[in-house]
Design brief:
About 25% of the residues lie in helices and about 50% in strands. It has a single domain, classed as Gcn5-related N-acetyltransferase (GNAT) (Aminopeptidase, 3-Layer(aba) Sandwich), CATH 3.40.630. A six-stranded mixed sheet has the order 1-2-3-4-6-5. The radius of gyration is 15 Å and the shape is globular. It contains three helices and six strands; from the N terminus they run αβββαβαββ.
Length: about 120
């Protein structure tokens, strides 16, 4: 709870919680990182709801939110591990691989990510 509070109050993350049949199915978090740049920080769907369109609903809600607060052209990016099975999902949502990055996370370990992007008009 403290991390989420800090992200929202100090770092500008905006969270949306998805529901299906009155049950929480997942959530998404978006953060503005520049004048025309947003980052999809998190998108998680509970395993029992995966495949039931909760992920695409949350993704579209994030895009809708960005359009509401930024009426002009902008870019939404996200980092996703190069071996993550969600790569196909992001590509179906219209995201493109922009570049790769290896990000140190401590003790000699790295996150090996694709940085994907979606132009929003």
């Amino acid at each position: 709870i403290e991390n989420i509070r800090k992200q929202m109050e100090e770092e500008g993350h905006v969270y949306f919680i998805g529901y299906k049949d009155n049950e929480v199915c997942g959530y998404v978090s978006v953060q503005q990182q520049g004048e025309d740049l947003f980052h999809l920080q998190k998108i998680y769907v509970l395993p029992s709801f995966q495949g039931s369109h909760c992920g695409s609903f949350l993704f579209h809600e994030a895009v809708k939110y960005i359009k509401e607060i930024h009426p002009g052209r902008c870019l939404m990016e996200l980092n996703v591990n190069r071996n993550n099975k969600a790569l196909n999902f992001y590509e179906r949502m219209g995201m493109k691989k922009l570049r790769e990055g290896d990000f140190p996370i401590g003790n000699g370990y790295y996150m090996n990510d694709f940085i994907m992007g979606l132009e929003i008009n």
